[in-house]
Specification:
Layout: H1 28-38, H2 50-54, E1 62-63, H3 69-75, H4 78-88, E2 92-96, H5 103-112, E3 115-120, E4 124-129, H6 140-147, H7 155-168, H8 172-185, H9 190-202, H10 206-219, H11 224-236, H12 240-250, H13 259-271, H14 275-291, H15 297-310, H16 315-329, H17 334-350
Parallel strand pairs: 1-2
Antiparallel strand pairs: 2-4, 3-4
Helix pairs in contact: 1-7, 1-9, 1-11, 3-4, 7-8, 7-9, 8-9, 9-10, 9-11, 10-11, 11-12, 11-13, 12-13, 13-14, 14-15, 15-16, 15-17, 16-17
């Protein structure tokens, strides 16, 4: 049984920040990494990056988050990207690396419609401002034929990477087709089975997600990607103790330092009233984010809430410090900023002078 925290002294209400970073709990990066943990890298022949590089060859100014910490921060904040774009007036966006970190930016572009994808492959997503010809799922035919030329052992990993990028673009039907193709090549692959579980999680089919996560875990015990989906599904179904057990196992795997895994564990620990575990996960998450020079403001708000809930000696003052640091960072939305300010005032009014 999970031991709940004792009666709390400080009570703060929930606000609009609660779902601000929900996209971080997706498991795409863990599934892709699982192939590398299992295989010797020499056995996995990657998709050639020259293909996606060709798509930006004629661009003068390219937004490439992997080249600059400031650009990486902007990739996770549509408002920051727009500010940078007014300065640099980018010709193209080259989004490689972990797909989940671009999710909010790509969702923003689907609404604004000024930036459109022109190329998608296992390595990157390339977008151009108001292109004459946009990418469509029909374009996958060429990429899939190139993947088919790779060694058979490499193909499932590349199909999974491509499916991840399509999921980030909201192309769930095409992503599912690629996962089915990967299963045809590797029917006993725990990693591909976990990708299918992730697809069901992204489409909020939680029972199916659980079923396929269990199948993946039967093939590979404690596979991080499958544990992540299992924890997500239990959380969505309101089974907090089961979710906490799954995320606790996740914290014992190589994924324990991944931001997605840490944030998921923190969310679940919060729902399970295991505030000590929540605080520990959020503190580790802050360390990881600061090292990567990634935004920390929303994490600090969550940490302040958890500290106020735990209400140990000194927690109130530390909660105030975290909220003040969050506001000083300057990248909160107006709703988040208002919530942080109200929460800060509320905590200041309730903490004892000796806290």
């Amino acid at each position: 049984m999970i031991q709940p925290a004792p009666e709390q002294k400080l009570v703060i209400r929930k606000g609009p920040v609660a779902l601000a970073f929900a996209f971080l709990v997706l498991v795409n990066v863990l599934i892709a990494a699982a192939f590398m943990w299992k295989k010797n890298p020499a056995q996995v022949e990657p998709y050639p990056s020259v293909v996606s590089r060709t798509a930006v060859a004629h661009a003068k100014t390219v937004f490439e988050p992997g080249k600059s910490p400031g650009f990486l921060r902007a990739a996770q904040s549509p408002a920051m990207f727009r500010s940078l774009d007014r300065v640099y007036r980018f010709d193209a966006l080259y989004l490689d690396g972990e797909p989940a970190r671009y999710r909010e930016l790509l969702r923003h572009f689907r609404e604004s419609k000024d930036w459109q994808p022109v190329h998608v492959d296992p390595v990157a997503i390339v977008l151009i401002r108001s292109p004459q010809v946009v990418w469509t799922p029909d374009s996958l035919r060429i990429v899939r034929s190139q993947i088919a030329t790779l060694p058979t052992d490499s193909q499932p990993a590349m199909l999974v990477l491509l499916a991840n990028r399509l999921g980030t673009l909201g192309e769930m039907k095409s992503a599912r087709t690629l996962i089915d193709d990967a299963l045809q090549v590797a029917p006993d692959s725990a990693e591909v089975r976990a990708q299918l579980a992730s697809w069901f999680a992204q489409t909020a089919q939680w029972n199916e997600a659980l079923d396929h996560a269990r199948k993946a875990l039967a093939l590979s015990k404690n596979l991080p990607a499958a544990l992540t989906v299992q924890a997500q599904a239990f959380l969505a179904l309101g089974k907090f103790e089961e979710a906490f057990n799954a995320s606790s196992l996740l914290m014992k795997t190589p994924a324990a330092d991944e931001p997605q895994a840490l944030f998921l564990h923190a969310r679940i620990a919060h729902e399970a009233h295991a505030y000590w575990h929540e605080i520990d996960a959020l503190q580790k998450l802050l360390t990881v984010a600061e090292k990567a020079q990634a935004p920390t403001s929303a994490y600090r708000i969550y940490l302040a809430q958890a500290l106020a809930k735990r209400s140990e000696p000194g927690d109130g003052r530390e909660a105030v410090r975290q909220l003040e640091a969050s506001l000083a960072e300057g990248d909160l939305s107006e709703n988040q900023k208002q919530f942080a300010e109200e929460t800060l005032a509320q905590i200041k009014s309730q903490i004892a002078p000796t806290d």
